[in-house]
User: Fold Amino acid transporter from Coemansia thaxteri.
Amino acid sequence: MAEPEIQGAQPAWRRVLQRLIARKPLEQILQEGRRTQMKRVLGRLDLIAVGIGAIIGTGIFVLTGVAAAENAGPAVIVSFIIAGVVSGLSAFSYSELSSMVPISGSAFTYTYATMGELMAWIIGWDLILEYLVGAATVAVGWSAYVVSFFSDVFNVHFTPKTTQSPVLWDSSSLSFKVNHGSYINIPAIFVSLMVTLLLVVGIKQASWVNRTIVCIKLVVVVLFIFGACKYVDRSNYAPFVPPRSGNSYGVKGIFKGTQRVFFAYIGFDAVSTAAQEAKDPQHDLPWGICLSLGICTVLYIAVATVLCGIISYRELKGQASPLVFALTFHDNTRWLRILIELGAICGLTSVILILLMGQPRIFFTMARDGLFPRIFGRLHRRFKTPYVPTIVSGVVCAALAGILPVDILGDMTSVGTLLAFILVNIGVIIMRYTHPHVERGFRVPGGPFLIPVPGALIALVVLVLSDGPTIYRLFIWLAIGLIVYALYGYRHSRIGNPERWSDDDVAYFQDSGMVFDEEEGPTKLDPMDNSERAPRGTLGNGNSSSSLQDNGILEAQPVDKQYTSHGDVRAAG
Assistant:
């Protein structure tokens, strides 16, 4: 029988386009998730603690004051409500997708299955802003509270030269300025590296530390709400929406404040990055995502209300530890200030812990798909953690935290998060129509449009209303990512270049703690998984499953595939 050519006669531009929109088959993603060597040690309470640990941090201890002073005034309370609503809508979408695709990689994995490789790369690159840059933001806030704590408790005063950023951002002139009184932020670098070391050792140890820290900071936040509420002066709420002044205040200031405090909510999606270390990810991930977000939203609104009531928003400008600073204006609050400083230090540590746990697992997932160098897919032989991307993430985080100011880092993290929320909401709609019968441990109530559409649209509006420089920096970052994809990811993608996954990969993935089936490609085997391995190009049932076929670009045929020297697909007779 003649061998009809499926792809060879197509022009180059069409083959490139097909590659860019090629989706990773959902069945393949689920199969990879069942075959894991990461230790499944996280229960439902652990996942809720992961969410709270990541959410309550810089947003409440640092950015509340920044957003009130520079953007919204007392209306920062409204900013928190809007951000909470948008995050809540997106949390439903994250919950459905995480129960349907319980694989580490978060929005990257969901986008790969719904919108194709190019969009998956964009969101994976964007998530670096959310997790890695986000961790750097928190490290800067941690540094400020450590300095304040040592000053209040031990009367030890650190020099600004080694505890502040050498670069500042002027929101009025929208330009960078040199901070001549500082060289580097050493405490921020220190905490980034220490957390990295803990994560290399293992997720269970990190989980135990996180649960302890979460309990401490929840107590401290509640103490601030009830301990400071007696100092509230209603006159501080007037005017609730300050009149527009330059780039600040007014209605637009509320939305700018929303974009800024959005950083405060980013942690809930970090729960989904721990999917392959969860005991029952399909049922426990939705609980972890929704409960952690709900608890934190209530606390955020309460803290913002009390803070704006005990001090004029104008006094909060430039304060990296606004809760403590506000209490200094009132008598008999030293004990409360010390508790808040201690709670903030513990709380911010847990946020850094969770964010630096999430980022390496996204790198790990992208490396497994060939979009990042293979070394990012290595597991430590003893600890079974992705130690290479963990170390790389920690070092880069330390460098950013030591140099850049908290507001720049926070704004970049927020816009990156908004973009991820938009794509995840769209992903739910697509999955409802392309994979309607796949089991879901949780479904977004009201069908595929009632919640995901408003979630995507509101996130888009907040993103568009962000200030110009932040949007420009986002586009520059994404442009750099596209260059990296063109130079490496496109050429090494597993679904686009199956012929590259050859004998050289066998020894590598065996050495890295993964198992490589010469027929199938690299997988991570679970000793409890007795399912038969499917040959490369199948889903385990003998049917063809190339990513291009899953897109409907190529017609699926129940025959073996052969790859030519050019990577074109031919049907064997």
Q: What stands out?
A: Residues 1-7, 509-573 have pLDDT under 50 and may be disordered. Residues 430 and 534 are 27 Å apart (CA to CA).
